[in-house]
Amino acid sequence: MTSAWRVVGATGFVGSAVTQRLRADGHTVQAVSAPRLSSGARTVHHLLGRARDLESVIDYLADSFAGADIVVNAAGIAAPDGKDQDALVGANAMLPVLILAAAERTGVKRVVHISSAAVQGKTHFLDETSRTTPFSPYSYSKALGESALQRLAAREDRPTHPELVILRATSVQGRGRATTKRLAAFASSPLCSVAGDGTAHTPVTSVDALAEFTVTVGSHRGEVPQIVLLPWEGATTSSILRDAGRRNPIKLPTVVCCAAVATGYALSGLAQNRWHGAVRRIEVTWFGQNQVPGWGQEQGLLPTPRISELLRSVHLDRA
Questions:
Q1: pTM for this structure?
Q2: Which tens digits make up the pLDDT trace of 301-312?
Q3: Which of 58, 174, 250, 305 could cross-link to 193 by cystine, CB 3.0-4.6 Å?
């Protein structure tokens, strides 16, 4: 059964993949341009208070959502190294709040907000709890957006109650993306390396898997948990480097890698956390990060694994 969808940020990296998948599946989809916002709010209370002053933006979004069953928010600033906190909060926290507020006025049944597993920081196991430990301006803005959405969705005085789903994307890769190009360059270089034996799970995933899972979540007929995590695609720290660089990574002693990462964070801390995002990328590349099996796996709704195919195509692009 097809549904009427709206995708906010449909021309972006994730939004274009979601839109393409929706059209391939026969759904009716319309793109909604994301307004550019900036906000000095740093708490949920202040964010929700300032959102009330943006009535014109809510009206624009509500008009755009008219007739829609499902709204996907694929907009935002995906900048792990971003430093402009006001711009990050505006795009990654304020905009999602306005989207949910607009959806409440238009009879939308479900809002799927694409967030980031970065909100849980350096935890050993990513999961689907509301626990967040942000470590950078970017991850802070995404965590603030999640908290504000949950607070807004819990209010009893809402005009209607569209179901809110926060979909935490992991380390999403795609052809042409800067982070993927950096990964391929590292994998092809003499520095290509992992910590230990390279069998650790890694949350690296493909944009096609994210698009497929987004459509699955949005169109699911039963209830969906408020927070869902993009399922693991089966990659390990060694496999992604072999696929992206067509060479076996050097296996470094874990203690050496731990010391290097600790030094990186210490130096970044002296520079007001300027390089936390870059150090975190190195840490995940070396050590990976585990995921607790979540709702998608429990329901048997796993996206088709495509990360190996994607990274091999990126390597061919570089050849």
A1: 0.94
A2: 999 999 999 999
A3: 250
